[in-house]
Amino acid sequence: MSAPASRWRSSAAPVGWRSPSITATPPSRWAWTWAIPCMSVANELPCRTMAQDADVLVIGGGVGGLCSAHFLAERGRHVTVVERRRVGAGASEGNAGIICPSESIPLSAPGVITKALKWMFDGSSPFYIKPRLDPALIGWLWRFARSCNRSHVSRSVPLLCALHTRSRELYEQFAARPGFDFGYHHKGLLKLAVTTQGLKECVNQVTIHREAGMDAVALDAVQVGDRLGGLTSPAIGGSFLADDAHITPLAFVDNLAADLQQRGMAIHGETEVLGFERSAGRISSVRTTQGTFNVEAVVLAAGSWSPPFARELGLSLPIQPAKGYSVMVPRPKDHPEQPIQLQEAKVIATPMGDRLRIAGTLELAGMNEAINHRRVQAILNATARFLPSLDIGRLPILQVWRGLRPCTPDGLPFLGHLPNLDNAIVAAGHAMIGMSLGPVTGELVGQLLDGQAPQTDIHLLRPNRFA
Fold it and tell me: Which CATH architecture has domain 51-109+149-183+245-318+410-466?
């Protein structure tokens, strides 16, 4: 049964909803601090419009930017973070929270183009492109099509697997730190398939995962049922991926921001970057709405907002913002402890304490943050189809969220020095795996900025690979 749209598509928004995160949950402790421009994180400092010194300036207050700040601070660098909104208000807030070695197959893989052509103009499909004449989008799609081949997948899987696995290890270390409580659980991921084609995809993915050394197993209908706890599903099979873990994303971002502030790092929310000053092959200062920062180094980790900054610094980054959605409902007592992915619908249901977040879809509609209610309804309908006993139509909707995920044509992030600028690093383009790769991205940024060889060969991630 389709979930009724009237619960969330009313002319009067539910009490507690707010922009930009469109959430009925109480704002985090950071939201109040960063709601007023030119205020410090703890409201301890007055507005500053004169020049300020910053050892390292991180542009972007999402998981990638904050993890970069953390690992740079661990190396003795003094870090300042600037964020155009409140920290964590972008793609780091409402995602599925999966730490996912299982997503080591890049988005640009064989067979994706065929699916995309079927889906691209269907507003309720997992992958939707808003029709428009956009040269940047056309160029991105051309590069994407060229990357959808087996050779690209075979090169990318070992690297992504290593990065996800290292990131999970770092999440485990964060979870053991005092003051960190973000719902880290290493329970694996259960995939459900309701069609023969969907099951074939699950089995093929298991083969690729095993070849990369991951713990993955294909399941028949009975085995799927055994793992569903008290839920029922028409699934004819699926897979279980034991290497995956999950977290509550915004809790981690809040924990990390609090820890950075306690260590003396400056975090400026509601702060726009206006431009850069360069001298002798280096960025010497960054102009912002809170004044000018004289810098020793810059980390560009602004997600979908990174391309204009990179362009000003001499590099074109082919990033397309891909809008994703999530819905939060109370967690039914029968829901298993591990997240469940609905294979054909590309939807994931993740338990987060006493709540269940259901996330999915990929919508290429430009820098458009409006909620497409048809897309949200598609997530609810898919959940009702795959997990009818969840009775999603009767559960109250606590939160509807949307965010822009920065997608590259080859499904790999950009990580490395900006060409011709030896004190600037870009860490952007992580698409749907940004939460998973946040810690390892920060660790690698620290190594790169200190002139060390990265512990993992990240040549495939070089920022100028499409130049």
Answer: 3-Layer(bba) Sandwich (3.50)
